């Protein structure tokens, strides 16, 4: 969560609420979007000197806007440059599939049908995010970044999610068909 927040703050300063809302709308399939996890990460990053906040008053409410510090930028750049770790991606639902033979046949089919439904929903969410992103990418942006490259890799992430959900939907669909043919 910490590096995700640092990455978002590279783009622009944000409040805790704005970070949580952005994560919920765009990155909830990657990580938790709970206020608690965002606030915990913000407190840790601030303690480490990787972010700083400016507090302002809006009416009667105090508003903290967070920005990345040079130390935070350095930590983020080191993290994003590290090789990706294939072993870090886990799908705990495979454990459920591993033990699904212990469930009754009707329960197996119901679990698989529901998982297929969830993959369809995931694809729909990611497709909507892809459209929102295309709109965001067309807006004027501040100079100093190669935005085409930034958006290129964000697009790859979205396309990966859509393709992965499609693969799982098809794979579980074949499994469901096999189970239904056995009945």
Description:
By secondary structure, the protein is mainly α. The chain folds into 2 domains: 1-82, Orthogonal Bundle (Arc Repressor Mutant, subunit A); 90-183. It has 7 helices and 3 strands. It has helices at residues 2-11, 16-27, 35-47, 70-81, 93-99, 105-137, 147-182; strands spanning 14-15, 51-58, 61-68. The termini are far apart.
Key structural traits:
183 residues; mainly alpha; Arc Repressor Mutant, subunit A; 2 domains; 3 strands
Summed over residues and divided by their number, the pLDDT gives a mean of: 85
Order of helices and strands, N to C? HEHHEEHHHH
- Note the gap between the termini: 45 Å
Q: Specify the overall morphology.
A: elongated
Give the total of domains: 2
Q: Helix share of residues?
A: 55-70%
Taking all Cα atoms into account, the compactness measure Rg is 20 Å
């Amino acid at each position: 969560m910490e590096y995700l927040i640092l990455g978002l703050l590279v783009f622009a300063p944000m409040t805790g609420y704005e970070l949580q809302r952005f994560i919920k709308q765009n990155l909830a399939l990657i990580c938790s979007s709970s206020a608690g996890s965002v606030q915990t990460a913000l407190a840790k990053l601030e303690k480490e000197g990787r972010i700083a906040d400016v507090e302002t008053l809006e009416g009667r409410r105090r508003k903290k806007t967070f920005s990345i510090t040079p130390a935070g930028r350095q930590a983020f750049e080191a993290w994003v440059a590290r090789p990706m770790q294939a072993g870090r991606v886990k799908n705990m639902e495979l454990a459920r599939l591993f033990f699904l033979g212990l469930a009754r046949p009707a329960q197996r089919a119901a679990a698989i049908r529901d998982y297929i439904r969830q993959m369809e929903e995931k694809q729909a969410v990611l497709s909507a995010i892809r459209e929102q992103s295309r709109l965001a990418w067309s807006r004027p942006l501040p100079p100093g970044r190669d935005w085409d490259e930034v958006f290129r890799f964000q697009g790859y992430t979205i396309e990966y999610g859509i393709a992965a959900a499609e693969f799982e939907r098809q794979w579980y669909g074949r499994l469901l068909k096999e189970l239904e043919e056995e009945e």
